[in-house]
């Protein structure tokens, strides 16, 4: 879906890793939530509360879920992270992403 309709956007940025990862939160009429963001080259780790679907719009990365091997994505691509989990990510080329939180 290239466009989002009827959303509320939190104008305050989510800033991680000294500004190397940033995003903005969107909330939809049905209560669902997504973030749109940018990740600069580097290595990061994130924890999840809800299941997450990471859509990679541009860029190149490698990611690793617990007890799995590294996997590479050159955009476009998608990967999922289970709820109450974590994942490691290596950004090779600047990544533009959309993360959907699934309750």
TrEMBL record:
Enzyme class, broadest EC rank: transferase
Protein name, entry field: Pyrimidine/purine nucleoside phosphorylase
InterPro entries, per the entry: Ppnp (IPR009664), RmlC-like_jellyroll (IPR014710), RmlC_Cupin_sf (IPR011051)
Cellular component aspect of the GO annotation: cytosol
Family named by the database record: Belongs to the nucleoside phosphorylase PpnP family.
Function, in words: Catalyzes the phosphorolysis of diverse nucleosides, yielding D-ribose 1-phosphate and the respective free bases. Can use uridine, adenosine, guanosine, cytidine, thymidine, inosine and xanthosine as substrates. Also catalyzes the reverse reactions.
Protein's organism: Candidatus Marinarcus aquaticus
Catalysed conversion reaction: cytidine + phosphate = cytosine + alpha-D-ribose 1-phosphate; uridine + phosphate = alpha-D-ribose 1-phosphate + uracil; a purine D-ribonucleoside + phosphate = a purine nucleobase + alpha-D-ribose 1-phosphate; inosine + phosphate = alpha-D-ribose 1-phosphate + hypoxanthine
Gene name as annotated: ppnP
One Pfam family this sequence matches: Ppnp
